[in-house]
Write a structure and sequence with these properties.
The chain is of the alpha+beta class and 95 residues long. It has one domain. 18% of the residues lie in helices and 32% in strands. It has a five-stranded antiparallel β-sheet, with no helix packed on it. Pfam families: DUF4176. InterPro entries: DUF4176 (IPR025233). This is DUF4176 domain-containing protein.
Length: 95
């Protein structure tokens, strides 16, 4: 798999009609605070990304979405990358 996209990237997911902004990577769903059966069934699962609607940003946890790189059909904008991001990408590869 290629390197994960940096935070701040804007993407469109398969079957989606709303763009998402990535603000977290390598996220594990805990299931805490959710009574929904669907979220409980994915508890303990690691996802590549955590995103929020763009341009709104974080509204509340009901509008925060976990997804994998394979779910992305279009990269609208690639987030900021520098030496610190490159170093972090090396850590992510080991996770």
């Amino acid at each position: 798999m290629e390197a994960l996209l940096p935070n701040g990237s804007i993407v469109l997911l398969k079957g989606g009609n709303k763009r998402l902004m990535i603000y977290g990577r390598k996220q594990i769903v805990t299931g805490e605070g959710n009574e929904e059966t669907q979220k409980e069934s994915i508890a303990g699962t690691m996802f590549d990304y955590l995103g929020v609607p763009y341009p709104e940003g974080y509204i509340n946890q009901d509008y925060a979405y976990v997804f994998n790189h394979s779910d992305i059909i279009d990269i609208i904008f690639r987030g900021y990358e520098d030496e610190e991001e490159e170093d972090f990408q090396e850590i992510l590869k080991k996770a």
